[in-house]
Every structure is written in C-alpha cells, then in structure tokens.
Hints:
By secondary structure, this protein is an alpha+beta fold. The chain is 41% helix and 22% strand. The N and C termini lie far apart (82 Å).
Amino acid sequence: MKCFRFIALSSFVRWWKRTREPHSxxxxxLFSLLIAIQxxxxxxNNKKSSTQVAIIDTTAVAIVSNLQxxxxxxxxxxKSVDTVPEINxxxxxxxxxxxxxxxxxxxxxxxxxxxxxxxxxxxFTSKKLVLFSVFTTDVQDNPHRCAYGSYYGSPNQDELLIxxxxxxxxxxxxxxxxxxxxxxxxxxxxxxxxxx
Length: 196
C-alpha cells in the first residue's frame, strides 16, 4: 500500500509540474491536500505496523518460553531414562505364571532386582505396553509411556489382568486388559518369567 501511494504521488507531481499555471491556487491546494493525505496515511500505517510488531514479539516470546519449558521436560525425561540401573543377576526376580489358572503376577520386592517389560509384539523394539520394576526411575510418572502403565508389582486384578496364552519364540504371549476394557496381546521375554 505504501508503494502504491508513493507511485501515485510521484506520478501526480510529474503531471502537476508539466501542467501547472505559475500562480494557480487550486493546483497548489490540490497538491498540498495530496501531500497531507500521503503523510497521514503513512503515519497510520506505521502505528498499525508497530502494533503488529508488538503482537508478534509477544507471541514469539510466549512460543520461545513454551519451547524452553518443553525442552526442560524432555531433558528431565531423557536423564531418567538414560540412567537405567543395572539388574543384578544374583538378585533377579521373575514374574510368576500360575499353572492352574494362567494368571501372571509380579510380586513387589524391594530386595530383588527386576524390570519386566510387556511389548506389543514379540520384538524388543516394539512399543512397551506395561512395565514392572523395582526401580523408581522406571515406575514414577510412567517415563516409558506404557499404555497399561508402570508398576512396582502386579496391581489388583480388577485394575489390570494378565493371563498367559502361549509361547512366541523367546517370548511368552499373554492377554492384558485394564478394568473392563477389551483385552490386547502382550509379550514378555521368557527369561523374566517362571511357571509355578
């Protein structure tokens, strides 16, 4: 808009210089009026522009602030996941699968080491669905974002029910359901399970 007004004004000035009479008051009045409109128009645009810049600056500050907060949360999460405690093989605890009713149970034991992960597929790289661990860094605030949660031990069966259904290579297959939701398949590494 500024450029258009400038071009129009410069065109008018050239026309006025060619066609003006030496002392014509109407041409002088018309020229003065156009100059005043140009300056008033520029001034109102500058006010709008500075207001827009202020709004953009405020929004940018808010976005940067949100990004810094999110970055801090990600760093905290990364630290908790990166500092995974080692499992002591001598003190290792396993999940118990009952031979009578196929129920899957993890006993919470602070004196034993365990990190039992239920995967979506019989593959270590697949999504983690549930996790049982003695370590607070594995359980607190569900840092691995397991769909069925993270626990120190098996919760009551009304909250989470896991039933053994068979073997799948180096994994055991089970059905998992939370509350009264539909059951899903879950896979646990065989070395973390024993039958009783």
